[in-house]
Specification:
The complex is a heterodimer.
Chain A lengths: L2 H11 L3 H13 L4 H9 L6 E7 L5 H14 L4 E7 L8 E3 L14 E7 L4 H18 L3 E5 L9 H5 L2 E6 L7 H4 L9 E4 L7 H15 L19 E4 L8 H18 L1 H32 L3 H9 L5 H17 L1
Parallel strand pairs in A: 1-5, 1-6, 2-4, 2-5, 6-7, 7-8
Helix pairs in contact in A: 1-2, 2-5, 4-9, 10-12
Chain B lengths: L10 E6 L7 H12 L3 E4 L6 H11 L3 E6 L4 H14 L7 E6 L3 H10 L3 E3 L5 H11 L4
Parallel strand pairs in B: 1-2, 1-3, 3-4, 4-5
Classes of the chains: A alpha/beta, B alpha/beta.
């Protein structure tokens, strides 16, 4: 690690907000040397509870997160929030507007709120998010909330970062066929029908309850099937985050879930699954880099494409050629 | 995009400080910055100096754009500058002020550490170009 990064790390561990902010920037930018920095953080992590909040745009994620953070602060806990917003696929630019809703925590530096842009790639985003969570954890935050971009039904990545996942469902969120679809609804430990004062809330609650009922309480298979006693059935609750209604019940549920995770060993199982996923992601990244270098040594992508276009070769043969030297090295 | 993944993005905080309730200009600049490929954090209306310092530090922005129309710049901006200094964030944050600022005050703001003051009618390209050229490295 460079001397500059070592200083930064010391300052972060020392509780300097500026250093924490800068480390997250380095993680986001994949700054040269950021990997060593994150490596060094790892030994200081493992004490924070990580909560994921997702749901469709306008469901009220940021407002709820604001109230939750405030509640934790009242209890004397420190909070880190990472809020992800979409970025333009054309310019890479983004307007990150979740901070606007953090009104309850204005001026309280112990709520460390960081906006993150999706920067185009979802795979890269999950690596950056995981690493940013590590930075907050090493800094000493008790609770870390990750709020995802509410763009679609495919926010499954968050499960890999969070111990407990809350999915916000707005009233009037479509017929119950939406509830049959795979994806986002399967990842929830807690369902929150926010804006419960609006018409349609009762319907959303009963649809969700029916869905949960039909699903049974099988634990998510990807996390250690050998965990015993983890019999959590996702709860459905109503909140009006803007008014703070239901926030306490929501937090009680999060606590309850966390206790069960801890008691049954599911928390450890999740952590192990997460590390396996992280190692795989890093290896894929490294392999990608090797492949990119090989493509260059074959004359670059443009040339390869041209040969395919002219029917001199085909994509399968090109791929076989490019990977051959790497394959040879591995097999020797 | 994957190739651009490693390049650093210019992060800007667009902040409305004080009591005036007009944020149309701030919205326009936020959008123009977004279209220029910057990451814009918009802080909303009626921010106190403390709030802006908190946001600028936590978000680690290269650029802080303060929009003031109320004429209170000479009391509010110094508070922000002092706050940034407290968190060692002053040296590498480009501070811009947008709004209606008399010439005398402009000089004062610049002396304080504001890099540039953009008055009404400044072409957007000029502001963007200024940011591109002067945004401190991260």
């Amino acid at each position: 690690m460079s001397a500059k990064h070592a200083d930064l790390l010391d300052e972060l561990l020392d509780g300097k907000h500026r250093a924490l902010a800068r480390v997250i920037t380095k993680i986001e930018n994949r700054d040269p040397g950021y990997r060593e920095l994150v490596s060094a953080l790892h030994g200081h992590t493992g004490s924070a509870d990580v909560i994921g909040v997702t749901g469709s745009p306008g469901a009220g994620k940021s407002t709820l997160v604001d109230k939750v953070a405030n509640y934790y602060r009242d209890r004397g806990e420190t909070v880190g929030v990472i809020a992800i917003d979409p970025s333009s696929p054309f310019t890479g630019g983004a307007v990150l507007g979740d901070r606007i809703r953090m009104a309850s925590n204005v001026g309280d530096m112990d709520v460390f709120f960081r906006s993150m842009s999706a920067r185009g790639s979802l795979g890269g985003l999950s690596t950056a998010t995981t690493d940013a969570v590590k930075a907050l954890d090493a800094f000493g935050k008790d609770k870390i909330i990750v709020e995802t971009v509410g763009a679609g039904q495919n926010e499954i990545d968050i499960v890999k970062t969070a111990d407990t996942v809350a999915v916000l469902v707005p009233p009037e969120s479509g017929d119950n066929v939406q509830m049959l679809k795979a994806g986002i609804l399967e990842i929830a430990d807690v369902f929150v029908v926010n804006k419960a004062d609006l018409p349609g809330a009762d319907r959303a609650v009963s649809d969700l309850k029916e869905m949960v009922h039909m699903r049974g309480d099988e634990p998510t298979p990807e996390f250690g099937a050998d965990v015993e006693g983890y019999d959590w059935t996702p709860e459905v609750i109503e909140t009006v985050a803007k008014e703070g209604e239901g926030v306490e019940e929501f937090i009680d549920l999060l606590d309850e879930h966390h206790e069960l995770l801890e008691k049954t060993g599911m928390l450890d199982a999740k952590a192990r699954t997460r590390y396996a996923e992280e190692i795989r992601a890093l290896l894929r990244e490294d392999a990608n880099r090797l492949v990119t270098e090989e493509i260059e040594s074959h004359g670059g992508m443009t040339e390869l494409v041209e040969a395919v276009y002219e029917r001199e070769t085909d994509p399968y043969s090109v791929a076989a050629d490019v990977i051959a030297p790497i394959e040879d090295c591995v097999h020797d | 995009m994957s190739a651009d993944q490693e390049s650093q993005s210019i992060r800007c905080l667009v902040a409305k400080v004080g009591l005036d309730g007009h944020d149309r200009g701030a919205h326009v600049i936020a959008r123009a910055f977004r279209d220029a490929g910057f990451e814009v954090i918009y802080s909303g209306l009626h921010n106190a100096p403390d709030e802006i310092v908190q946001a600028a530090v936590q978000e680690d922005v290269n650029v802080l754009g303060i929009s003031i129309l109320s004429g209170a710049h000479d009391t509010l901006v110094p508070k922000i500058v002092a706050g940034l200094k407290e968190y060692d964030a002053f040296e590498d944050t480009l501070i811009l002020v947008g709004g209606v600022v008399p010439d005398d005050d402009k000089a004062e703001l610049k002396e304080l550490g504001v890099a540039e003051v953009f008055g009404p009618g400044t072409p957007m390209e000029e502001t963007i170009e200024f940011v591109r050229e002067n945004a401190p490295e991260r």
